[in-house]
Design goal:
By secondary structure, the protein is of the alpha/beta class. It has two domains: 194 residues, Alpha-Beta Barrel (TIM Barrel), CATH 3.20.20.450; 192 residues, Hypothetical protein af1432 (Orthogonal Bundle). Helices cover 47% and strands 13% of the residues. It is built from 19 helices and ten strands. An eight-stranded mixed β-barrel has the order 1-2-4-5-6-7-8-9. The two termini are 27 Å apart.
Length: 402
């Protein structure tokens, strides 16, 4: 049964083309964004947008509009999506203090665009007018005559005017004739619930090895990759994000190092913080899949003195356990990942040299579970003990949710 990921309502321009999509928080149990809070709602929407396995993908071709909380605006952080892909909506609940206005200036300097949502032309919001890209007028709360007056007074501003809650054609035509640029409402399109398969996230890495490495004063690529390898659910989520349309991957990904280099340090920091804020993962599954991944990597290292396949072999072992970690069919999960064909073939068909490493580890796992004598596996038991110990040591440094 598909999961509810979020809802999406299009915003149209005066020619009838879709200009952007507003993303709305939705929960199967009917919990509202107001009940969970703006920060949690926005985190879940963005997380599901870039990691969920979607059938409906129209929203990814255009900018998305999302709400953010006062706390997030003031935090010094920025959204993990590039500014050209997102429009930040400032809801009427936000009090535009001097501190908020200064924070928004910093966001604008980074390239982010802002929409003043349900704008009611209160004097306290005047400082934000020069920073806004869109003024959204709730036409149910603002009479047409007032909207007309305000539009005439402020038409010198370099902003787009959006009439929201359009319910019929005469109203649409009235605001078009007035000079408004954008339109949204049930008459044009109701919010569409976007369903798919929600990919679980990991809450295990908060204030742990991963966070420490990402936010160290002089972060090292090797140390970041090593830290990320402690959390397989985090890694598979980062793979989904790296393969989302917002990053436009063209080359085939072979290792976690490439994912880190593709995303870049700052977006990686933001994504990790967002991911760890959503949900948790069972520790035994984590240990099992990590041990398999490290065993594949170690086998590759032993076979190749140049260590060319150690990284890809780790990725193979990790992705081979995606069904265990996520409860999602491997073929479905890998379908949209831009991984190398060697990695894909190894995971799905156990093909090639990488597939040989995986087959050897899986055969060992089976005999170990069945308490079958392990002599035929040569030194694999030693490799297993080494990797099992390594995983336990690594995970002793992270707070796995029990």
């Amino acid at each position: 049964m598909p999961d509810t990921l979020f809802a999406s309502q299009p915003i149209y321009d005066h020619t009838g083309k879709i200009y952007a999509h507003e993303l709305l928080y939705r929960h199967e149990d009917g919990i509202t964004a107001f009940e969970v809070g703006d920060s949690v709602a926005t985190s879940e929407v963005l997380y599901n947008l870039c990691t969920g396995l979607l059938d409906y993908v129209e929203h990814i071709k255009l900018p998305v509009c999302v709400n953010v909380s006062t706390e997030f605006l003031l935090s010094g952080l920025f959204l993990p999506l590039a500014p050209e892909h997102v429009i930040v909506e400032l809801v009427e609940r936000i009090e535009p203090t001097n501190e908020i206005v200064d924070a928004i200036r910093r966001w604008v300097a980074k390239g982010f665009r802002f929409a003043l949502d349900d704008f009611e032309f209160q004097d306290s919001w005047q400082p934000l007018l020069e920073l806004a890209t869109i003024i959204k007028v709730d036409i149910e709360r603002t009479p047409f005559e007032v909207a007309q007056q305000r539009y005439e007074e402020l038409r010198h501003l370099n902003v787009l005017w959006l009439a929201e809650r359009i319910e019929d054609e005469p109203t649409l035509n009235s605001y078009k004739e007035l000079g408004f640029d954008l339109f949204q409402g049930y008459f044009l399109a109701k919010p569409t619930v976007v369903e798919g398969k929600r990919v679980p996230s990991a809450a295990a890495t908060q204030l742990t090895l991963v966070i420490n490495q990402l936010f160290s004063e002089e972060p090292e690529l090797y140390e970041i990759v090593a830290a990320l390898q402690t959390d397989p659910v985090l890694v598979v989520n980062l793979l989904r994000i790296a393969n989302s349309p917002y990053y436009g991957v063209t080359r085939k990904i072979e290792s976690l190092k490439e994912v880190v280099m593709l995303l870049g340090l700052e977006p990686l920091r933001k994504w990790v913080l967002l991911i760890v804020s959503v949900k948790g993962q069972a520790p035994e599954k984590t240990k099992f899949v990590l041990t398999r991944a490290y065993m594949c990597s170690e086998l590759a290292r032993k076979k190749d003195p140049f260590n060319r396949l150690s990284g890809p072999a780790f990725l193979v072992g990790l992705l081979a356990g995606s069904d265990v970690l996520l409860g999602i069919d491997k073929k479905t999960f890998l379908r949209d990942l831009n991984i190398s064909e060697a990695v894909r073939a190894a995971v799905l068909q156990r093909g090639g040299e990488l597939g040989d490493y995986l087959k050897a580890v899986e055969a060992f796992e089976y005999d170990l579970a069945m308490k079958t004598p392990l002599e035929k596996h040569g030194d694999l038991f030693d490799v297993y003990q080494q990797c099992h110990f390594l995983v336990n040591e690594l995970l002793s440094n992270v707070a796995i949710e029990q």
